[in-house]
Write a structure and sequence with these properties.
- Helix content is 73%, strand content 0%.
- By secondary structure, it is mainly α.
- It has one domain.
- α1 crosses α4, α2 packs antiparallel against α6 and α5 packs across α6.
- The radius of gyration is 16 Å and the shape is globular.
- The two termini are 12 Å apart.
């Protein structure tokens, strides 16, 4: 399947196109998000831990950002964001970008990483990009892998509903 950029960001059908993509493919969206979260967990619990000696702990960012004490609730919020909001963001992004899904996924992953550590971590008081240490790079790898898994699942693994 190729990118469906038939309605660009400047066109009047952009919002309608995104809404159609999502409402006609809710299960596909949730599967893409779940695939992304699984890819995140596998990557950050193995690869980044082995190579960078770091495993990102997004619950800490959610706790700092929202002032939540309960770790389980912060983790649940990150999982819901990963399963619903992250693939929804990809669906919007792919309508703007004419590039292949793999490149779109990688670019979207970098954008997610920057939002998490460049914006949200700064707001939460952790510092911009967490000071560019190993945890920063572990998070970057995790976000890019997560987004590529979302892109692959959305574009290739699950047939769209017609």
């Amino acid at each position: 399947m190729t990118n469906q950029n038939d309605t660009t960001a400047g066109g009047s059908g952009f919002v309608a196109g995104v809404i159609g993509d999502v409402t006609n493919n809710i299960l596909r969206l949730l599967i893409a998000g779940a695939m992304g979260i699984v890819a995140w967990e596998v990557t950050t619990d193995t690869l980044t831990r082995l190579v960078l000696a770091q495993s990102p702990q997004p619950h800490g960012l959610v706790q700092g950002l929202l002032g939540i004490q309960a770790r389980w609730l912060a983790e649940a919020i990150h999982y819901v964001a990963g399963i619903v909001a992250f693939p929804l963001g990809y669906v919007v992004f792919r309508r703007i970008s004419p590039l292949p899904w793999l490149i779109n996924g990688a670019i979207y992953g970098v954008a997610l990483w920057f939002m998490a550590l460049g914006i949200f971590a700064t707001i939460a008081g952790f510092g911009f990009m967490l000071g560019w240490g190993n945890l920063t790079w572990a998070s970057g790898v995790g976000h890019v892998v997560l987004a590529i898994a979302i892109a692959w699942s959305w574009e290739r693994a699950v047939e769209p509903k017609k």
